[in-house]
Amino acid sequence: MKIGLALGGGAVYGYAHLGVMKVLEANGIVPDFIAGTSIGALMGGVYASGVPISDMERISKEFKWQEIVNVTIPTEGLISIDRLKTFVEKFSKCTQIEDTKIKFAAVATNLLDGKARVFDEGSMGAAIRASCSLPAIFTPAIYDDGVYVDGGITNNVPIDVVKNMGADFIIGVDVTAMAKPNVIKNHDIFNIVWQSFLIMIQENSGFRSYKDADFMIMPDIRNFGPFDLSQKERIIKKGEEAAEKVIGNILSKIKEKGSLLGKVKDILTKEM
User: Fold this and answer.
1) What is the pTM (predicted TM-score) of this model?
2) Sign of the alpha-carbon torsion through 70, 71, 73, 78
3) Catalytic positions, please?
4) β-strands 77-80, 33-37 pairing
5) For residue 178, what pLDDT is reported?
6) Phi/psi of residue 126, each to 5°?
7) Which residues partner with 180 through β-bridges?
8) The sheet that has 136-138: what strands, in order across it?
9) How far is CA 211 from the centre of its chain?
10) Which of 9, 15, 91, 233 has its CA 20 to 30 A from that of 84?
């Protein structure tokens, strides 16, 4: 049975993905497919390339915004994250999506047609940079005859993508579902834009209802600033706690579905 992992966008909240993947791996669950949006694409892509969770956690804890951002004259966005491509290439085990250890795809939104674009081949760094381009905050990515912004606009938790990749059992991780930043305390332009974006993707996620996911994990992230890196260790812990609460149920459901799929395959094989 092929397992798919769909990792949602959510700025710094995406550190919770590390905690979730850490618990899944510790319990023997290593996905065959990973699809990610925004920070989910970054975390998922580096993991899919073959970087161990322990190394990812170390890199993430040492990470500073200065490594990927440049302040720009506000025309397309307040901050350029073009250096994110170089950052990904530095730490990833491969530069091309086709070469990842785990089959991987990143989701971005093309402003030219308003549709989601699934990057399942080509430059790993360019695809992840495109997926992470939060409108108004980060400058868009001009890539492959498209103008790309954050994939969260069209598909924040790409469950359908891992299903189309061939997953039989899908685990989705939504790090924004329970997020409630304190915009009264922090109402600068970054937090105002983020809260507006968050409302939109939470509404879209509600309409999707994640019907194709076999299991959804939603870390309890409240009152964390979306760009506050000082809280990253606490957010990783939130991901671990959320996964630990449901790991028993996930393992049982995988066993149950695997057994059913096995019986169906046996029947089909005999009939053929």
Assistant:
1) 0.87
2) positive
3) 38, 150
4) unpaired
5) 76
6) -65, -40
7) 222
8) 70-71, 77-80, 136-138
9) 18
10) 233
Please provide the size of the chain in residues.
Answer: 272
Torsion sign over Cα 25, 229, 224, 104: negative
Interval 124-158: pLDDT, tens: 999 999 998 888 778 888 887 899 998 888 899 99
Quote the tokens at residue 51. 């970087």
Helix axes of 15-26 and 232-271: crossing angle, nearest 10 degrees: 50
Q: H or E segment at 165? A: helix 159-165
Task: Return the residue matching tokens 């809260």.
Answer: 195
Q: Give the C-alpha separation, 117 to 125, whole Å.
A: 15
Query: What percent of the chain is helix, strand and coil (3-state, nearest 5)?
Result: 50, 20, 30
pLDDT tens-digit profile of 91-122?
Answer: 999 999 999 999 999 999 999 999 999 999 99
CA neighbor of 215 nearest in space, from 13, 87, 14, 23: 23
d(CA 227, CA 167): 32
For 121, the token pair is 């081949």
* CA–CA gap between residue 34 and residue 158 (Å, rounded): 9
> Could you say which DSSP state residue 97 is in?
G
Count of H-run helices and E-run strands, the chain: 9, 11
pLDDT digits (tens, 9 = 90+) for 51-61: 999 999 998 88
Q: Which residues pair with 169 in a beta bridge?
A: 3
Burial 224-260 (b: 16+ CB within 10 A, else e): bbbbeeebbeebbebbbebbeebbeebeeebeeeeee
